[in-house]
Write a structure and sequence with these properties.
Chain B: This is LuxR family transcriptional regulator. The complex is a heterodimer. By secondary structure, chain A is of the alpha+beta class. Chain A contains 6 helices and 7 strands. The chains are: A alpha+beta, B alpha+beta.
Amino acid sequence: MLRYIYATDLHKFSDLANSMFKDRADQFKTRLGWAVNVDENGEERDQYDHLNPLYVIWEEADGSHGGSMRFLPTTGPVMVNDVFSNLNGGTHICSPLIWECTRFCLSRKASSHVAGALTLGGTEIMRNFSVEHLTGVFDHRMIRIYRSLGFSPEVIGSIGEGRDRISLGLWEYSREIYLNVAQRAGITPEQSQMWFDRSFGMSAEQPMAMSA
Amino acid sequence: MANRVRLDQILESLEVTNTLEGLQEIIERVRDLFAIDHMMYHWVDSAGDHYYFGTYSQAWIDQYQDKNYVRVDPVIAGCFQRFHPVDWKRLDWSGKPARAFLDDALEHGVGNQGYSVPIRGPNGQFALFTTSHNCSDEAWEKFTEKRSRDLILMAHFFNRKALEFETERAPEQSRALSPREIDAMTLLAMGHSRAQVAETLEISEHTLRVYIESSRHKLGAQNTTHAIAQAMARGLIVV
């Protein structure tokens, strides 16, 4: 299932959280060879994890991490502005309607549907919170994968050649895209909304209705 | 469309306001334009000081402070340290103190529906922009679906204005347009189409879209047309 968890609430899901940071170390340091910080417990974190970001996490049946990504609004510190503004001609992206998505991570044991489910989680956030665009920096090889997930970015800028090529992307929300992503993920919008409601509170059980 | 124009006018008044009374008048105008019961802006700065303006009754504001409701208010608990907009229906009102608080709020004219936009500002600043109304769930869903974007933008416009009240800040600096943004806005102001502007600047239309969106946000504008008007009014672009 998909869970949406702010960093300040990760302690309530400690096994899930610990396996997420371990899988991030495995993906970004061991497999991709990025210069990321891994602590003595084998967990990877950076300064943005300390800004109370929102994580979307795929939880496996045994409670462990299957995949995840991390969101922060571009009105605060974000990597696209702090680290990668050269990909955008030095212009800062700053809008409450644009959130940054980073640390897209898949566990080694994740089944093939996890990437699709996470992508659906991203569009579910956009749909429910009126986020018009996501932005983020990605490896050039991801373009084909994004296309297969039904969620292709508009490329704003790129640097590097061949395997080292990275790009700044902008993903736009539309209802059509959302439905397409859900279909490719093999998850119904109803199921997806249910997971979302489980994390953010369910409207049906509340005593606010006048009729109640 | 008429509403859109009137909102632009209100935002222009907001731009030149520099008193709390001015903000109070503007939030009342926005509330009237959106045809809902209440709008409140509430800000806690890094030193823990509170500021607010909006349309709740003084009796309710006093009651809220007297009873120290900030400790039991599910809206505060559900928005603090968050950055997503929160429909009150999603909050946990099940506890006894929360229910008593809700009863008291309703009695003081707060709506049974609400939508709050939390904002994380610089240096630990936390602000909340709340819209509240008395209506059915269906009517409220329709309203928030149609207006959520406007409400999120209004929240940030009010917050930016409130931050200008903090003495050490130099807000104009953070709101300066980058050279590329100035180029884009200038060409748009001259009446070029987006395709023409993109071609002239040798960027894609997608890149142009980012420049326009970031300029719009910096200028406190609702849309591109309004952003251009603001940029011209402030002398940032010359056409």
